[in-house]
Amino acid sequence: MKLLLVGEVHDGRLTTETAELFGFAARLGAEASMVIAGSVDDLPAFDGRLYRAEGGHEFDATFHKRLVLDAIEREQPDAVALLHSSYGWELAPRVAFAMNAAQVSGVVGLDDDGGYVVECCNGKMLRTVRPLTDLAVLTIQPGAFAAAPMAGSPEAIAIEAAQDAAIEFLGCIEPERGIDLSRAEVIVSAGRGIGSEEQVELVRALASALGGEVGASRPVVDAGWLERARQVGSSGQSVSPSLYVACGISGAIQHLAGMKNSGFVLAVNTDRDAPIASVADVLVVADLAEFLPALTTAIRAR
Ligand code: FAD
């Protein structure tokens, strides 16, 4: 199988998740080539062809579409794989539409029969789909495939593409982040299991006792119990603290994608079989309402 991977560049660097695309290719046993748009210093190490194009803004999807279409024409891959990120969401449908190819969004696994496993019903169920077109365009859920060890030296091929005649890209404004969790050494995150906005105070108290920041899973943010800037996960921030305390968080893949690089993970959950157990160094099976005040008091007493 031949895969064309689309590397993702931010601030002149390849995103760390880009290495997971190589992990996906390795799981498929596929021959991989990659296309990267934009100037990057840290080129990926792999054995294959690397299509590079300078110029064009890193978020100009119309320009990137042309580069990917050019690389598809040269490579003739069976599938194109992008990350399931805001970059991939914007680019994948454009490429799929232009190629009349099936698009499979948010791949989290593979079945033994060439099918792609994706989540549905907001992550509560899985389904397996099999593209019927010669070319498939896939977006790969960050965190679903381990990054492959990088080795080798790719054959670099320069490509050029014209700007889209119909659309002029004027620029891109970075949102103000307000709260930057990416440098926090300790994060105590509230999940839906905390139960109510009032109970979030228990999480704040523990974070304060530990000298850390407060994070959140998406339902907590959607409920308005904590600011959106505190959301950890694939559509929130990626964090890598020394200590991550997950309070009433089940461990959905979108949440794990944002905290999988944490040092020590302490999870508190009433359900010993919650998926967070698979990434936790310690799982405390307890009710948050009882355990958090006890832990906070014990830490303050030290
Ligand atoms: P739940 O899954 O409802 O889990 C609650 C947990 O609390 C359960 O494990 C339960 O056993 C436990 N619990 C209940 N009561 C107690 C108690 N009293 N004491 C202790 N434990 C208790 N999610 C994110 O977090 N971040 C993202 O960036 C993100 N992006 C997404 C992007 C997309 C495109 C989609 C489709 C989903 C995204 N999600 C994201 C949502 C994600 O799929 C999950 O729905 C979400 O992470 C679940 O949050 P949770 O673990 O807090 O809630």
Lateral strand order in the biggest sheet: 9-8-7-10-6-1-4-5-11
Please, how many helices?
7
Stretches where pLDDT is under 50 for at least 5 consecutive residues are none
**Main sheet properties:** 9 strands, mixed
Helix content: 25-40%
Mean pLDDT: 92
Question: Which word captures the global form?
Answer: elongated
* Broad structural category: alpha/beta
What small molecules does the structure contain?
A: flavin-adenine dinucleotide
Radius of gyration: 21 Å
Q: What's the total number of strands?
A: 16
- CA(first)-CA(last) distance: 58 Å
Strand content: 25-35%
Explain what the structure shows.
With 302 residues, the chain is an alpha/beta fold. It has helices at 18-28, 61-75, 86-99, 200-210, 218-222, 253-259, 288-300, and strands at residues 2-6, 9-10, 13-14, 31-37, 49-53, 79-83, 102-110, 116-120, 125-129, 136-140, 155-158, 186-190, 213-216, 243-247, 264-269, 282-285. The strands form three sheets. It has a nine-stranded mixed β-sheet with strand order 9-8-7-10-6-1-4-5-11, sandwiched between helices. Strands 13-12-14-15-16 form a five-stranded parallel β-sheet. β8 and β9 form a beta hairpin. The protein is elongated, with a radius of gyration of 21 Å. Flavin-adenine dinucleotide is lined by residues 122-123, 191-193, 217-219, 231-236, 248-250, 252, 254-255, 258, 268-271, 274, 287-288. This is Electron transfer flavoprotein subunit alpha/FixB family protein.
